[in-house]
Amino acid sequence: MSASPRVLTDWNPENRETWRPAIAWGTLAITTYSMVMAFCVWFLVSAIAPKLNDIGFHLSKGQQYWLVAMPGLSCGLIRLVYMFLPPIVGTRRLIGYSSLLYALPMIGWFFAVQSTQTSYAVLLGLAFACGIGGGSFSGYMPSTGYFFPRRLQGTALGIQAGIGNLGMSIIQLVGPLLMGFGLFGMTWAAPQRQASGPIWVHNAAVFFVPWTLLAALLAFTLLKDVPVKANVRQQLDIFSNPDTWIMTLMYVMTFGVFSGFSAQFALIINTSYGKDSAFKGMEGLPAGAGYAFLGPLIGSLVRFAWGPLCDRFGGALWTLVSGVGMAVTLGWAALFLDPTHPDQFPVFLTAMLLMFFFTGVGNAGTFKQMPMIMPRRQAGGAIGFTAAVASLGPFIVGVALSSMDASLWFWLCAAYCLACAAICWFRYARPGAPFPG
Question: What is the pTM of this model?
């Protein structure tokens, strides 16, 4: 099947006699591992930002929101480039060089947090650079789709996106733990100081560097390319397909909200119930950093688990369920954003975690829909484009929370989810829908 050691020929996943599952699943394993590293980079700032003022930086609430939002802005722009790359550069080089790039912002943050003289402009620049982690998603997913038949697209893409998204949760969970001790015997990297004692904030950045280099090594030595080729001009035909634009609305609803509120979750908790809230000074207040990993963890695991269900029942049904569920839970959470007592926090937390659950359902549903309602190559481009737009979620949510009342923003998001659910029902999910998926 392979005319050269790096390029497969006569590759047709729909032909059961010639399709090689070992190649497809092996590619999925390596690219998914690399994507975990990618999402760790993308959400690195959300793990570090809540600690900056504790170690001597002097950032306002608005500056913190903007700092965490910046990777979302750059991610969206980078994805607009990555969406064209799979049929141009091939899977092997795409994954290999991307994995190498992830190390750069990590190393930058490693040095930046060791001096409180680092300017806010430099911090913004490093936050912008972290967008490469999320940006590569628009290349990874279409590339992986080339290796699997349509009957397994929901499962394969659900595994890659779901496990890959866990990087968001891993960095937010492991980051604070890594900050608690010296790492790798690097005695020359002195700890930072906070009121309660020394803290190694730089550990959260440097710990993952060796793992990204391993991902690059695996990609360059083990991955192969498929004979799917198209230049940029040929790929622009996705914009003439109305389903590209409608599915973009759906994915903004699911992944845009998921990534946006995941990035800002710790700050939302701190400003509504924690150290920066009206209850400041009271004992037993929740710390946002201790809960931030839960949202992306739940959403990612559900996205992974729901792939086979989408293959069985179709994606449109689950996208519809997601829209309705998200609207209800966002409205529920909005009622507790201006609490009268810290004891209301468990109710707010429950609403938010259920909202993250429904985002996972919808993320799995939308990625099953696109390969079903569009041609293979066009579906790959559409996946890349919708992912690019939706990845602006952290930026949009961060800007919104820094410029308007939080409860108003929650209600606006709930209304948007209901509108998307109605569109999904009419075009994709109802009996006799014109484009069932």
Answer: 0.75
